[in-house]
Amino acid sequence: MSTGVTFGICTAPPGTELARALSGAGCDYYEPAVASAIMAEGRDDFDASLARWGEGGLRPASANVFLPGDLKVVGPDVEPAAVQAYMDEALQRAKILGVKRIVFGSGKSREIPEGFPRQEAELQLRQAARWASDAAEHAGDGAVICLEHLRRAETNIMNSLAEAGRTAADVDRANVGLVVDIYHLLEEDEDFGVVREVADKVAHVHVCGPDRHPPAASDEANLTKLFGLLAGIGYQGRVSIEASFSDLAAQAPAALAVVRHAAEVAGLA
Fold first, then answer.
1. Could you tell me if residue 1 is inside a domain?
2. Which of 132, 199, 212, 254 has the fewest beta carbons closer than 10 A?
């Protein structure tokens, strides 16, 4: 059964040779970071180098690491004007690149400082999501902000998919959804069944093996389980491999094959 699910890899713009290799391996798109790639240059330099984002015929369709760690959205040092200006520019650039999913992880940016009231931090995080929603709306072209549950080793707020789902529900914007990340589900020992509870907000998926290793045959059971749940809720979006590759060109074909096979077995692709 053919579906609308596509498969990509998280990486910086790969360049012509690597892009062709990734496409040949079954990669449909790539996923760069907003903070360190899309927003790495001034606007003039970004505009002047647009061609490099599509070299080799492979283009970005999603992006992660929305905010740099020093741009705080939680705590006493939040500067609303600076945050909103960054978000507006980032979403404008995302539109130019054709990026439709912005993963809002940014653990350091949203970290609750010691002694800061948690309830206030949660309100601030929801406000930041609304600012991101506004920026996406202003940019147009239908981009969705995907709140990311991060393991406690990376931040101290929104550490479960269930909590991310409650945050998205509280924000209550059509263009604010969720990314389901198998790494964080496993690290936090969260039941995969939570996917059913947040089904209406699932907008993106990240996968990898243990310790962020590229997916391998030994990971197929977990991948198939997650993909089966996603198939059950009618998921039709993107699945990005977010892994620590030591040699992307050499390792990508096997990783993509594992992920695609698990998806086929689960009825997701």
1. no
2. 212
- E runs forming strands in 69-143: 101-104
pTM for the complete prediction?
A: 0.97
- Could you list the residue range(s) of the whole structural domain that residue 79 is in? 6-266
Which amino acid is residue 82, in one-letter code? A
Share of the chain above pLDDT 70, in %: 99
Interval 133-181: pLDDT, tens = 999 999 998 999 999 999 999 999 999 999 999 999 999 999 999 999 9
Which conformational region is residue 149 in: left (phi greater than 0), alpha (psi within -120 to 50 degrees), or beta? Answer: beta
CB distance 33 to 266 below 8 Å: no
* Nearest-5° Cα angle at 219, 218 to 224: 125
- CATH code at 170? 3.20.20.150
Counted domains in the chain? 1
Question: Does residue 87 belong to any structural domain of this protein?
Answer: yes
Tokens representing 48? 């002047």
| Spatial CA neighbour of 176 closest among 125, 226, 232 | 125
